[in-house]
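U., I forgot to send this yesterday:
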Amino acid sequence: MSIPLTNQLNTQMTAATSTDGKPLVLNEGQMVHGKVNQLFPGQLAEVQIGGHKMIAKLDVPMRAGDSYYFQVTGTQPEVQLKIISGPTNATADQQQQLQNLMQAMQLPKSPEMMKVLSFVIDQKMPISREALLQAVKILEGVPSAQHPQALASIQKLVELKLPITLPLFQALFNVGNKGSTHQVLQALQNVLQNDQTVSENMKQSLMQTMQRLESPLTNRVATSVIGQALQSMMNQDEAPEVKFTMLQTLKEAGVLPKNASLANLQSLISTTLAKEAGIQSMQAQFASQTPLTNAQLTNVQQFLNQLNIFAESEQVTLLNNARQGGMAQLSTSFMQLLGGHLAKNPVALNGAVTQFLQSLNSEQSTPLPTQMTQLVQLLEQNEQPVLRQMMVTAQTAVAETIDGAAVKETIQTVFRSLGVNYEASLAGKDVQPERLMQMLKPQLLALLQDPTVSATVKEAAEQAVIRMNGAPLLSADNGVQQQLIMQIPLTFFERKIDATLQWSGRKKEDGKIDADYARILFYLDLASIKETVVDMQVQNRVVTVTIFNEDPTLARLSSTFEPVLKENLTTVGYTLSGIFFKNYMTPQTTAKKTTQQPVQQGEGVDFRI
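Result:
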């Protein structure tokens, strides 16, 4: 009994699967290379295009087993194919095939066209005549040494189903370019400083945003500086001129009010402390040595607990001072202890400490992070020895406390300041225009739309936007599977790092990210240990870390940090399988044998992460 043709075709289409598991989507006008596997009545045939099989309607009768170059002339109700050239076979001369194709598609016979067409054939890329012409135009503007990378970027655009345009090409091309994002941003700063066509407001906003990018740890440095200043100003043995210099600097940055003086400083601090602790009393008591009542002491105790910064013994000391010497003694000892903590351990401020510092100048509407940026800028521009020493001390304190939390804080600060997710933010429910315009990307887009801005500035701004657009284009949301790529210019004091992060994972049935399975790759180019790749794989919450680098001392050094990593992973529900080291393999050294090294003790890294 024969099988009806419709059932036979349905069976063929159901059984047809692709080798990579991805559906092949064809559009009218595309050129494809396919093999006719089986013929059916009505000029229908099973055609194999790469690893994909489909039922298509042919424009002329063909022979099963032959391969042809087709042009897609329609997609409904089935794919319709028109022969361009063929039949072809594996032993046919490729140069002759290229010549035949260029003639059949009326393509210019240039070296660039030969190169693009040859690449398209080798990669079995579906592509239209118009896209071929645009790809050739783009390739003509790229140095011949970079043609392989350019062709790979063009292929990625085709895979992403994006038009082959110069801006999109440049965005992808620059992702793989070894040029530094730091250099691109520095070039933009250089042209902005000397350009008269950019308004002062826009220029100042751009420069402040790029300053945040260059100094993501500014808040920590400023925290240490504020701590040192508070500690010194409340120290009776400190020289008056030093106290005055520190007072004026904090006033100029907006941390203290303009009417603050050395004479009224203790009263100001006492008043602020009483207000934050919820103590209601006469203003004169805040500067007096009248012991606090039990009710007031209870409020102070609750406030100290809320700050969550003082050790138990320090809290006892503060309460005893309040009990014996009133607000005057409490405020002095409070500021000395608080200053010591901020100076030596300038970690990210918690809400209560931030609120207290903000309240020191209640008339100031500028947010504390902005005040901190201004404070650091003032100190960097000041040559007074006492202030220069404060900066050195602050930077040393921050360097000694850099840890995973600091790196996370830095990445988040840079990511927000760049505005890489600016377009996604626009689609959010709670859009805050004033916050969006603090990002670099929307500021650059506004700059590019300004007809009065010079071509030199626009070119520098466009290069920065291109840099920011590349990585998101490579990110993908394929339903269950997720991929996120970020390029982040990091700065740790004088060290600049271009870091690329690639995260791959999947979603659960409820649409949330599955934290049990993931792979995270960090591509780093570091000053001391050069090119480094950190490959972290998570399988069923078991973490394996592989580090690719040429420096043999890293394997020995890691034993110092492995217990800390293992403990921290355990606290969040993960198990460390191990840390392994292999030689870094560049495209030119793919044949190099990688060796796994035992974890031993040693030294010599750029930063702990």
